């Protein structure tokens, strides 16, 4: 192995003894250690038991690295689940608390194992200084059998005890050794060739460009839609709301209802729905086309005609006309749907429509109960359980002295007593002044039931003893005493 | 040197002598030549034939996955009420098989069962490839495969939401991916010294570079071995609870739900026993022919096979006990819905699947009580095939019978697998065997370094000792 005749004079870095069996190697290790050598190593095809003591190898710190990483993995698992599920995106499932440790144990456990295992792997490699592809030992042909069936013992020339001849003699004298080999330094240059360096750096720089561009795009606003390579269901053939359609002449994707049509299942008697008695078939249609601005022209004349024609039919004096006309300015802004209320805001002197005088439903005890139930849910919070306009919301608003608060109407005022049922119903449906419309929340039957219940409430103040049946009067008298 | 020496019957227990783990008069060098010879010899025709068959199945699987992705999960038979059909059955089946490798490497290592050294590499490779097959099915089952990363807790601008960590399905993501990662690095760590052996022996330049890179410059230094062994012990200590946790968590997918037939506390141990059972069944299925084909009878002796058979007998009986216990609890618990679920399982429309499962998993391994069955390779091969079939049916029975007869009788229905379902099941075997054949051809299929470490020392210098202090077995008159 010694090529001393070379011009370059490769530097000797160690001596290596070869053995055929593990016992000889162990004995040799023992001997070398006792001779005081420390920069020694043995090479075996399999882990040899007892060699740690024979060679004086200290226990590795690997378990401590693994413990540290494992504990960190556990906290990472705990933190990940806490941050994501309890802080950033709390899931509420079956009313369970958003943070419940037992359910988080499996993931914590798995992350402890994962982190520990990776620590074992990387820690072992790092402590063994692997990967190391260049090793002077690989240049010794005999060394190829270190992974097969031969055993080697090396002493480094840098060992304090190393003396060229003495160490050589020691190696030669080891029992069972079959060969002593001199190991020389790798003569090939240690430096990476420049061209590889430049190409490597260049490739690294080029490889950085796409992530930088992505990162830049990620944090920038853009006027063009984001790139969506897989569209899933983002783009579909159907027309979306508020978009332009090339199919229809008016360019609208959202189609208006065809005049005079009612959607299947939505038909309801127009009187029942609106609380207004129509004067012609045309009238019905006009009220049903609630979203149709262009149709206003058709319905206005109809609405204007009504009061004059219908008045004679009224079975009660139309005392409400005057107060109603006195208030239009207040009422109209609150009406969200001008066409349905038949009172477009532009016309201050809009005549009253022909209100239904009596609720168009059969009034039974059940209706009244239903009306009370709905009234207590929807109306009583402002108007009060008895209709005095002293609901909890109203009381609270007064307490807080809200400057913009408009007190809810007392349902027992003459103004309301004399209103036809239809108008009351219309107020519930569309709201008035600050009161919002309840048409979307309460079905028509229930709104009529509320109207009936309000009438019953009013009757509690206006009724006369004569109106009470004799039997019940008696009961009341008994109770009164 | 590497002559087959079947004269020694390793299946006989002799209290005086420790039974040898390697027979045939091998020394260190002959073990290296025996194992590396498999990689270095000319590729046998049988390998090409097997590879061609596996690759065709793999190609079919690839085509079917493409068809699935472009068409949608409607190509499967999954439908109301059996939304979990073949994909989950195949997933649990493969993940179960994937338990034997790590179990052999980790748990048998901790118990100092040195016979594991001959089969652990093989079994670990099987584990990795089975987990690959297992991971495939949930991956394609999610429907929109291109957003598979939503399974993981990654910040997403589009969703602005995070996974639900209290769901067993998410635990599954963590358990299976941790298991795959840990098994892979465990397997690879174990292979580093053997890859170095291959590196030092090969004359092929390309293979030499590949093996050099893979073996990371391993020299076999005693200082490296010291840390390596510590690392191996740590791996075993970590992988042992991991292997138990993975199938426990897989069983949570079922047990945490409210469905009668799934909602039982017996599931975690029952699944783990089943996983070990199916894993060892697959080890036997692969080991018996491989041992014959590659002439590994000296390293994988009949005693090794017998030990595997004993484990199969034990775990098969545990699985049988679990089946019985499910019925007992259904009766003892007095819940009529639970009772219905189990009576329906055995005597309902899927009675055939149930009885295939019972006969394959409970009855067939009982043959291993007889020594002749434990020592006759072809017989154990046949039984191991039954075990594989039975364990697939176990998952089918659990998944499908429970779902097909769930809560409302009005929504009951039968599961009808489509040709795509069958094709993917068969195709997953193509994937498994393709990977396995590649490994057998290019990787060290027996852990040489570990086998050498459990071989008797040659004792060149101590031959004069009259009594062998280790009780080690010597049958080679030359030593």
UniProtKB/TrEMBL annotation, chain A:
GO terms for molecular function: electron transfer activity; heme binding; metal ion binding. Keywords: Heme, Iron, Membrane, Metal-binding, Transmembrane, Transmembrane helix. It comes from the Bacteria. This is Cytochrome c domain-containing protein. The keyword Iron applies. Residues 366-458 form the Cytochrome c domain. Residues 292-338 have a biased composition (Basic and acidic residues). The keyword Lipid metabolism does not apply. Residues 339-348 have a biased composition (Low complexity). Residues 292-356 are annotated as: Disordered. Pfam families: ActD, Cytochrome_CBB3. It comes from Blastopirellula marina. InterPro entries: ActD (IPR021776), Cyt_c-like_dom (IPR009056), Cyt_c-like_dom_sf (IPR036909). The chain crosses the membrane at residues 61-83, 103-127, 198-218.
TrEMBL record, chain B:
The keyword Cell membrane applies. It comes from the Bacteria. It is a multi-pass membrane protein. The chain crosses the membrane at residues 45-70, 82-111, 123-149, 169-189, 231-250, 270-290, 311-332, 352-370, 377-398, 418-440. It is found in: Cell membrane. One of its GO terms (cellular component) is plasma membrane. Keywords: Cell membrane, Membrane, Transmembrane, Transmembrane helix. Its main location: membrane. PANTHER family: POLYSULPHIDE REDUCTASE NRFD, PTHR43044. Belongs to the NrfD family. This is Hydrogenase.
């Amino acid at each position: 192995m010694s090529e001393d005749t070379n011009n370059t004079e490769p530097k000797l870095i160690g001596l290596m003894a070869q053995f055929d069996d593990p016992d000889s190697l162990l004995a040799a290790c023992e001997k070398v250690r006792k001779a005081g050598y420390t920069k020694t190593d043995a090479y075996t095809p399999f882990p040899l038991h007892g060699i740690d003591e024979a060679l004086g190898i200290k226990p590795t710190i690997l378990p401590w690295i693994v413990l540290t990483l494992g504990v960190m993995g556990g906290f990472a698992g705990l933190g990940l689940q806490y941050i994501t599920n309890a802080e950033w995106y709390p899931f509420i499932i079956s009313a369970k608390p958003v943070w419940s440790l037992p359910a988080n144990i499996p993931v914590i456990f798995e992350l402890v194992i994962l982190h520990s295992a990776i620590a074992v792997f990387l820690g072992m490699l790092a402590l063994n200084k692997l990967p190391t592809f260049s090793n002077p030992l690989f240049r010794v042909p005999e060394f190829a059998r270190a992974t097969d069936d031969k055993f080697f013992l090396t002493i480094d020339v840098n060992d304090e005890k190393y003396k060229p001849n003495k160490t050589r003699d020691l190696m030669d004298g080891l029992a069972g050794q079959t060969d002593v080999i001199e190991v020389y330094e790798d003569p090939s240059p240690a430096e990476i060739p420049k061209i590889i360096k430049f190409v490597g750096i260049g490739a690294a720089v080029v490889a950085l460009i796409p992530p930088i561009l992505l990162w830049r795009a990620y944090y920038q606003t853009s006027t063009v839609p984001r790139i969506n390579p897989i569209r899933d269901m983002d783009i579909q053939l159907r027309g979306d709301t508020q978009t332009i359609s090339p199919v229809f002449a008016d360019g609208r994707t959202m189609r208006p209802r065809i005049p005079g049509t009612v959607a299947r299942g939505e038909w309801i008697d127009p009187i029942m729905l609106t609380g207004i008695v129509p004067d012609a078939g045309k009238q019905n249609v006009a009220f049903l086309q609630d979203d149709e601005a262009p149709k206003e022209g058709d319905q206005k004349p109809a609405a204007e005609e009504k009061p004059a024609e219908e008045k004679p039919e009224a079975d009660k004096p139309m005392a409400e006309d005057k107060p109603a006309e006195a208030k239009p300015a207040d009422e109209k802004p609150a009406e969200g749907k001008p066409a349905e209320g038949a009172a477009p805001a532009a016309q201050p002197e809009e005549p009253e429509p022909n209100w239904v005088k009596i609720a168009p439903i059969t009034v039974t005890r059940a209706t009244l109960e239903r009306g009370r139930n709905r009234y207590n849910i929807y109306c009583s919070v402002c108007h009060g359980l008895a209709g005095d306009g002293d609901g909890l919301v109203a009381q609270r608003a007064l307490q807080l002295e809200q400057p913009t608060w408009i007190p809810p109407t007392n349902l027992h005022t003459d103004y309301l007593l004399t209103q036809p049922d239809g108008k009351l119903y219309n107020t519930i449906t569309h709201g008035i002044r600050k009161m919002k419309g309840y048409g979307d929340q309460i079905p028509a039957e229930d709104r009529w039931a509320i109207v009936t219940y309000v009438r019953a409430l009013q009757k509690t103040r206006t009724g006369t003893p004569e109106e009470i049946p004799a039997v019940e009067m008696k009961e009341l008298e008994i109770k009164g005493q | 040197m590497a002559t087959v020496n079947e004269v020694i019957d390793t299946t006989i227990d002799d209290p005086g002598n420790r039974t040898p783990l390697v027979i045939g008069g091998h020394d260190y060098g002959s073990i290296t030549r025996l194992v590396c010879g498999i990689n270095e010899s000319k590729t046998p025709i049988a390998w090409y034939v097997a590879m061609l068959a596996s690759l065709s199945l793999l190609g079919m699987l690839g085509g079917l996955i493409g068809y699935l992705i472009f068409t949608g999960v409607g190509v499967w038979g999954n439908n109301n009420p059996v939304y979990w059909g073949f994909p989950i059955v195949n997933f649990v089946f493969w993940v179960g098989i994937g338990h034997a490798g790590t179990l052999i490497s980790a748990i048998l290592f901790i118990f100092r069962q040195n016979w594991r050294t001959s089969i652990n590499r093989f079994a670990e490779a099987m584990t990795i490839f089975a987990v690959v097959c297992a991971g495939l099915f949930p991956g394609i089952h999610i429907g929109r495969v291109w957003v598979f990363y939503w399974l993981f807790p990654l910040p997403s601008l589009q969703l602005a939401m995070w996974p639900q960590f209290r769901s067993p399905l998410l635990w599954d993501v963590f358990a299976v991916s941790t298991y795959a990662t840990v098994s892979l690095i465990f397997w690879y760590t174990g292979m580093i010294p053997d890859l170095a052996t291959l590196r030092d022996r090969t004359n092929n330049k390309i293979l030499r570079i590949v093996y050099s890179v893979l073996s990371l410059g391993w020299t076999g230094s005693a200082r490296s071995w010291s840390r390596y062994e510590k690392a191996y012990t740590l791996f075993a200590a970590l992988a042992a609870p991991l292997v138990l946790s993975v199938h426990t968590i897989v069983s949570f997918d079922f047990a945490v739900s409210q469905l009668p037939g799934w909602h039982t506390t017996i599931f975690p141990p029952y699944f783990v026993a089943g996983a070990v059972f199916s894993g060892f069944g697959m080890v036997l299925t692969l080991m018996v022919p491989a041992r014959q084909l590659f002439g590994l009878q000296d390293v994988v002796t009949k005693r090794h096979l017998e030990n595997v058979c004993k484990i199969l007998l034990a775990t098969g009986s545990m699985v049988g006990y679990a089946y019985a216990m499910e019925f007992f609890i259904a009766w003892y618990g007095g819940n009529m819905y639970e009772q219905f679920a189990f009576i329906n399982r055995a005597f309902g429309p899927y009675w055939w699947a149930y009885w295939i499962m019972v006969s394959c998993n409970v009855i067939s391994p009982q043959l291993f009580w007889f020594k002749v069955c434990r020592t006759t390779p072809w017989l154990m091969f046949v039984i191991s095939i039954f075990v594989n079939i039975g364990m697939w049916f176990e998952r089918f029975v659990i998944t499908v019978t429970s779902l097909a007869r769930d809560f409302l009788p009005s929504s009951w229905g039968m599961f009808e697998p489509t040709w795509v379902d069958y094709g993917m099941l068969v195709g997953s075997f193509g994937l498994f065997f393709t990977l396995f054949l590649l490994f057998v051809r290019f990787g060290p299929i027996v852990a040489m370094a570990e086998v050498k470490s459990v071989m008797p020392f040659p004792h060149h210098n101590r031959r004069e000792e009259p009594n062998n202090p280790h009780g080690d077995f010597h049958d080679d008159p030359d030593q």
